[in-house]
């Protein structure tokens, strides 16, 4: 399941909502998934995760385009999903060439889980087989969901730095 564009083409956008309506609907309506903002109105966390995704997706696409400059045949897709335990998983899949039979060469995976009353995030760079090549910085989100998009933008900058720090390794794997 993914939500993104094929090769960065928004015309191929597939909505997570249409792909997994039952899970999303129950998640978005669950009382444990809504918080009160400071003015007392309800905040739908799923809608906030969508805002976070919009910010992180830009980081993923920017990174993919850098590698596409060195390898015009590069294929990529971005996506995200939400479950009760992992309310925000996002990824960037990269292949040297577009070949449906080929496993991804590189996957950048950002995951936020609910632990001890807080959302904790991690990022790693791995092969398509799951071998972790690099672990990135961890993050914790504030209690107030209204702060998450800005925090995700900052975390996206850290993800971008992780990719930059491993640029040579990634270039060797993708070009």
The biggest beta sheet reads:
6 strands, antiparallel
Low-confidence stretches: 1-42
Question: Which radius of gyration do the C-alpha atoms yield?
Answer: 16 Å
Strand segment tally: 8
Q: What structural category do the secondary elements indicate?
A: alpha+beta
The H/E string reads HHEEHEEEEEEHH
As a percent range, the share of strand residues is 25-35%
State the domain count: 1
Give the fraction of residues assigned to helices: 25-40%
Average pLDDT, all residues: 76
Number of helical stretches of at least 4 residues:
5
N- and C-termini, Cα separation? 26 Å
Shape: elongated
Description:
- By secondary structure, this protein is an alpha+beta fold.
- It has one domain.
- The chain has helices at residues 16-19, 21-29, 45-70, 148-165, 167-174; strands spanning 34-36, 42-44, 75-81, 88-95, 106-115, 118-126, 132-135, 139-140.
- Helix 3 packs parallel to helix 4.
- The longest helix has 26 residues, at 45-70.
- The two termini are 26 Å apart.
- Mean pLDDT is 76; it is low at 1-42.
Features:
175 residues; alpha+beta; 6-stranded antiparallel β-sheet; two-stranded antiparallel sheet; 5 helices; elongated
Give a quick summary of the entry.
This protein is α+β, with helices and mostly antiparallel strands. It has helices spanning 16-19, 21-29, 45-70, 148-165, 167-174, and strands at 34-36, 42-44, 75-81, 88-95, 106-115, 118-126, 132-135, 139-140. It has one domain (10-174).
Topology at a glance:
Elements: H1 16-19, H2 21-29, E1 34-36, E2 42-44, H3 45-70, E3 75-81, E4 88-95, E5 106-115, E6 118-126, E7 132-135, E8 139-140, H4 148-165, H5 167-174
Antiparallel strand pairs: 1-2, 3-4, 4-5, 5-6, 6-7, 6-8
